[in-house]
């Protein structure tokens, strides 16, 4: 199983290198947050380098990218999500708008995913 994950990461890494070369960097991203306890959803508009709060989480956007020449294409954003109470980083990495489950936030109460880049 470990070998399978390693090969998947290597394949994704190779693919991301190609995607980064053919990607444009946006000024920000639009994310959606869901509170799974009360069912409320809210959109967060963040500029690159900025952070916002969703419930007891702080969400920081590093960068949002999209396919070059296709602003409506699949976005992917680098996010760092921390718990306000403990200050612990609970997610740090790239999230893909087209496949939010591929690298998802694992939190018992909140779910956050990328909708699109803000250009």
Structural summary, described in words:
The protein has 119 residues and is of the alpha+beta class. It has one domain. It has one helix at 2-21; strands at 23-25, 28-35, 40-47, 51-54, 57-67, 76-83, 89-96, 110-118. Strands 1, 4, 5, 6 and 7 form a 5-stranded antiparallel β-sheet that branches. β5 (57-67) and β6 form a beta hairpin.
Describe the protein's topology.
Layout: H1 2-21, E1 23-25, E2 28-35, E3 40-47, E4 51-54, E5 57-67, E6 76-83, E7 89-96, E8 110-118
Antiparallel strand pairs: 1-5, 2-3, 2-8, 4-5, 5-6, 6-7
Low-pLDDT stretches? 1-20
Strand proportion, as a percent range, falls in over 45%
Helical residues, percent: 10-25%
What's the count of strands? 8
H-E order: HEEEEEEEE
Biggest sheet architecture: 5 strands, antiparallel
